[in-house]
Amino acid sequence: MATGYGLIEPGPAAAAVVVSGVIATESEQPLASRLQQIYDGVDRLLADHTPSTVVIEDLYAEYSFPRTALLMAHARGVICLAAEQHKIPVLALAPAEVKRAIAAHGTASKAQIQEAVRRLLRLSVAPRPSHVADALALALTGFSRAGGRLA
């Protein structure tokens, strides 16, 4: 299980990345241990950076891989718990909404999201892995919904 994260803040010309990365767990570990690692990582990030909002990807109804949806739901649960414990509101956004906001169409590929995030954040290279780009896309969309300007 890999959980991307990205924290942005307003900058003079565009939003700027404060921190980004992946909380990675090993598939051989028990689920409870993996969720604890995700919780601990998110809790540490929230304590260190105190963002105004936590933006997560909403689950959608139809999944080709139901096991992935269940694992995602577990991860979302511990992220929401950490946010609640820090009294930080959570905003859930549909994947298609984020893709439309970032790449101008709701069926954008991973590569298109990575490139759009690179352009919007004025990065020299596209964020990798795609989990980081997805997290930054969520952060940018949440930022825009809160009245920030995307470029």
Structure description:
The chain has 151 residues and is an alpha+beta fold. The chain has a single domain (2-145), classed as Nucleotidyltransferase, domain 5 (2-Layer Sandwich). It has 5 helices and 4 strands. The protein has a two-stranded antiparallel sheet with strand order 1-2. A two-stranded parallel sheet has the order 3-4. α3 packs across α5 (130-145). It is globular.
Shape: globular
- Helical content class: 40-55%
Strand content: 15-25%
Helical element count? Answer: 5
Specify the CATH homologous superfamily. Answer: Ribonuclease H-like superfamily/Ribonuclease H
Poorly predicted segments: none
Return the CATH architecture.
Answer: 2-Layer Sandwich
Mean pLDDT: 93
SSE pattern, N- to C-terminal: EEHEHEHHH
CATH topology: Nucleotidyltransferase, domain 5
Q: What's the level 1 CATH class?
A: Alpha Beta
Oligomer: single chain
Q: Give the strand order of the largest sheet, numbering strands 1, 2, ... along the chain.
A: 1-2
Largest sheet: 2 strands, antiparallel
Total domain count: 1
Give short descriptive properties of this protein.
two-stranded parallel ribbon, 50% helix, 4 strands, Nucleotidyltransferase, domain 5, alpha+beta, 151 residues, two-stranded antiparallel sheet, 5 helices
